[in-house]
Amino acid sequence: MSRSERSPLLLAGLLATAGAAHFARPRTFDAIVPRSLPGSPRAWTYASGVAELALAAGIALPRTRKAAALATAAFFVGVFPANVKMAVDWRHRPAPQKAAAYGRLPVQVPLVLWARGVARGSEGRS
């Protein structure tokens, strides 16, 4: 299997793992839901978990891959405020936790680019 064939499956696996984690350990995700969002943090945690699972399924299927990959890029941009909130909230935690929280911020850029690359790589395929 070539790298271009593995890339969408790896992205789908990342999304599926993250989506499942929202249900396995929701309290972790509840804590980073921005307070400005209406409703309960748990509802947002579950909604984002469902979204990640749906995006994973869409990317795994060649017929829906391009649209799902573009939606994934938008999703990664949309969850950035939660990562900012985590970095702000964790600024006084021990160095390893603080580093993890701050490290999540720049990781969003390659994730967005990866999703866009998967979309580009699926053009003309069905």
From TrEMBL:
> Which positions make up the signal peptide?
1-23
Q: Name one Pfam family in it.
A: DoxX_2
Note the topology in the membrane. Multi-pass membrane protein
Could you list this entry's UniProt keywords, alphabetically sorted: Membrane, Signal, Transmembrane, Transmembrane helix
Residue ranges of coiled coil: none
Query: Where in the cell does this protein reside?
Result: Membrane
Put simply, this protein is called DoxX family membrane protein
Lineage, uppermost ranks: Bacteria, Bacillati, Actinomycetota, Actinomycetes, Kitasatosporales
